[in-house]
Amino acid sequence: MATMIEENGPSTHEQSEVSSSSQARQKLEGLLNKNMRIRMTDGRTLVGLFLCTDRDCNVILGSAQEFLKSTDTFSQGEPRVLGLAMIPGHHVVSIEVEADSLEDTQGFGANH
């Protein structure tokens, strides 16, 4: 019948979960408006600006272009302009961030 009340806030386990989720959120926020390439399960590749994502890993790209074949660089191939595109998370195979976009981002894998 005794109830334990924590007067000093959440336990250390809960604090570590909050800390790791806030670090992940900061990394994602650092990628906003960066140019990304997303490869999909059907072989298509979409390139565009990362605008948002959700808990189901759906991704919204702005100024998106579709490439029918996988390419080694962002500029190869004949693109089809899509504009704003939503990619369902279960169709995402890989996500790459353009190197030029990362150079502008501090603290996310950029070596200065």
TrEMBL record:
Region (Disordered): 1-25
Pfam families the record matches: LSM
GO cellular component: NatC complex
InterPro entries: LSM_dom_sf (IPR010920), LSMD1_Sm (IPR034110), Sm (IPR047575), Sm_dom_euk/arc (IPR001163), snRNP_SmB/NAA38-like (IPR050914)
Sm domain residues: 23-101
GO MF: RNA binding
UniProt superkingdom: Eukaryota
Family in the record: Belongs to the snRNP Sm proteins family.
Name used for this protein in its record: N(alpha)-acetyltransferase 38, NatC auxiliary subunit
Organism of derivation: Stegastes partitus
